[in-house]
Design a protein that fits this description.
β11, α9 (231-244) and β12 form a beta-alpha-beta unit. The protein has 300 residues and is an alpha/beta fold. The two termini are 32 Å apart. The strands form three sheets. Strands 7-1-2-8-9-10-11-12-13 form a nine-stranded mixed beta sheet. The protein is 32% helix and 24% strand. The chain has two domains: 3-43 and 105-298, TIM Barrel (Alpha-Beta Barrel); 47-102, 2-Layer Sandwich (Alpha-Beta Plaits). The chain has eleven helices and 13 strands.
Length: 300
């Protein structure tokens, strides 16, 4: 069986598909969305993050680092990511888990052993397993192996995808996927490249292919003020869904809760100037889609 680089496994999830689910976060994503809620899962390598609130300043991490990539400063521990070799000596030495390793290689067998602990919840709630990330289909072989193993156990399977993967990957996973949570972030290519760093043509082409081959698809729209929340743009997404015969759409309002993650990863958070959309504004956008006959959900 193959192995995957996993960022996290979240138990008792209720926002990643129907019922109670176990969500497996694959590390690495081809998109670099400016508002990403999981920036720790963007790169395809393990990382070390420093948690200021857990640090007691003992210096164990500094002493343990074989390449002197960690320095104690008045602002706290600073990691030189150019020097860091991801050996994880610092996280192993840290007595308070202030230095945390993100990214662990896990085999399909190891993942299934963890997933199967929650089988009773799947049966009682009509839930199952969701592959998320990052972009799970960027690790295509491992994702396919895990989906197959889940279906052999009779678990409902969901893939949360940005859609930016080769079409043949969707061809491979479709027989083992009960539901796709498919993100539409922007329909204009120039804006998509500005905020996601990738063109949107492959995403839209894959969406059309999946819908034409009978896939069960729920569209998810991150609602980002001034970026993709105009009435005209929301209406265009609704029209596209009608063309493709899709009915379920989820609006995911922007929030800043992930800003602290960017700080820990020494990444700039470029949208800190945006305000969270009001409940009234979100409802207005939902009504645009509802008037087209779509089933609109807010959050989740």
């Amino acid at each position: 069986m193959s192995t995957a680089l996993i960022g996290n496994i979240q138990k008792y999830s209720i926002h990643d598909g129907p019922g109670i689910r176990t969500t497996v976060f694959f590390k690495g994503c081809p998109l670099l969305c400016a508002w990403c809620h999981n920036p720790e899962d963007q790169v395809f390598t393990p990382e070390i993050v420093w948690h200021e609130d857990k640090c007691i300043g003992c210096g164990s991490c500094v002493a343990a680092c074989p390449v002197q990539a960690i320095a104690a400063t008045p602002q706290g521990m600073v990691i030189d990511r150019e020097k860091c070799t991801h050996c994880h000596s610092c996280s192993n030495a840290c007595p308070t888990v202030a230095m945390e390793r993100i990214g662990k290689e896990m085999s399909t067998e190891e993942l299934m052993a963890e997933i199967s602990k929650d089988a009773a919840f799947y049966e009682q709630s009509h839930g199952g397993v969701t592959l998320s990330g990052g972009e799970p289909l960027s690790q295509a072989e491992a994702a396919l192996d895990l989906l197959r193993a889940c279906k052999e156990k009779g678990y409902h399977t969901t893939v949360d995808t940005c859609g930016f993967v080769p079409q043949n990957v969707f061809e491979q996973v479709l027989p083992y996927t009960d539901l796709f949570l498919y993100d539409i972030k922007h329909l204009d290519d120039a804006v998509h490249q500005q905020y996601m760093r990738t063109p949107n043509a492959p995403i839209l082409e894959n969406l059309r292919w999946l819908s034409s081959h009978g896939a069960n698809i729920w569209i998810r729209i991150p609602l980002i003020p001034t970026v993709n929340d105009s009435d005209e743009h929301i209406s265009r997404i609704g029209d596209l869904m009608l063309q493709l015969g899709l009915k379920e759409v989820f609006l995911l309002p922007y929030h800043k809760m992930a800003a602290s993650k960017y700080h820990r990863l020494h990444l700039p958070y470029t949208l800190s100037h945006l305000e969270d959309p009001s409940d009234e504004l979100v409802k207005e956008k939902a009504e645009i889609l509802a008037h087209k006959g779509l089933n609109v959900h807010i959050g989740g």
